[in-house]
């Protein structure tokens, strides 16, 4: 899936732009060399782009009237109701954030010492690790005096303590060997996995309760026509927790139909939130619009949810046999 579905593949001709509408991509005018700006082909190309974008905008308005839309942006959800009003749910994130903000010392330490490979610490690495140890100590003290869930707190403190110990040992010895890192990782891995399970459970249970509450509070919404767009970052698109939740909720097939994942280009925080939501809703409309177009034009409603040149590409590559590249 292309980020926000808003970056289309470069094309030259109108047909190529049509093919580039795969997985709901927003068609953009070609950035690569193309026919003269005043040519009939360029005019035809412009007409397609304008018509498609106008149709997508109109289609979103139709979708808003046909059924509710839920936009999930990380720990929040916004319900776009059929009457045009919105309702927002924000999860109680205290335990989730404590988990999230203390789950990554191992990755942080790896990032600090990986340049040149694990082993003897350079002067700059020593400084970086020493500074990070100080941050671990401050976080430990804050968590210790902060109250909160005892199980979550104990796990966070243990993870920080083990990370601090291995980092201080590396500073004393002047080296952070791969064996030492692997031994440390095997100790903290169960803590990290427990944190991840906690985070998933916190989010899924709270979201499910909120969804059930909305369905009860707004019984006149066409819940059988519910559409969902889930905002997330690129690396998380596979097995993304809330995407799995909504796919389970709506019995969604593998290819997107009612649940769409949107890789963000503009994070939905602060002043950027409205624009990020606008792009996500535009994406939702285009994925649905593409299904209609693909069914009519190509005889397969899912054809534009993958690269339409994919089947031909697979056959060509198969005919080439095994690659001889090293």
Task: Please describe what this structure looks like.
The protein has helices at 14-19, 40-66, 94-102, 105-113, 123-144, 150-173, 178-217, 241-249, 273-298, 310-320; strands spanning 69-73, 76-80, 86-90, 119-120, 175-176, 227-232, 259-263. By secondary structure, the chain is α/β, with parallel strands linked by helices. Strand 1 (69-73) and strand 2 (76-80) form a beta hairpin. The protein is globular, with a radius of gyration of 25 Å.
Give me the strand/helix succession: HHEEEHHEHHEHEHEHH
What is the strand tally?
Answer: 7
Largest sheet: 5 strands, mixed
Question: Termini, distance in Å?
Answer: 29 Å
User: How do the strands line up in the largest sheet?
Assistant: 3-2-1-6-7
Rg calculated over all Cα atoms: 25 Å
Low-confidence stretches: 1-31
Number of helices: 10
The global form is globular
Secondary-structure-derived class: alpha/beta
Estimated share of beta-strand residues = 5-15%
Instruction: Average the pLDDT over all residues and give the rounded result.
Output: 85
How would you concisely characterize the structure shown here?
The protein is an alpha/beta fold. The protein has helices spanning 14-19, 40-66, 94-102, 105-113, 123-144, 150-173, 178-217, 241-249, 273-298, 310-320; strands spanning 69-73, 76-80, 86-90, 119-120, 175-176, 227-232, 259-263.
Strands, helices and their partners?
Layout (H helix, E strand, L loop, with lengths): L13 H6 L20 H27 L2 E5 L2 E5 L5 E5 L3 H9 L2 H9 L5 E2 L2 H22 L5 H24 L1 E2 L1 H40 L9 E6 L8 H9 L9 E5 L9 H26 L11 H11 L6
Parallel strand pairs: 1-6, 6-7
Antiparallel strand pairs: 1-2, 2-3, 4-5
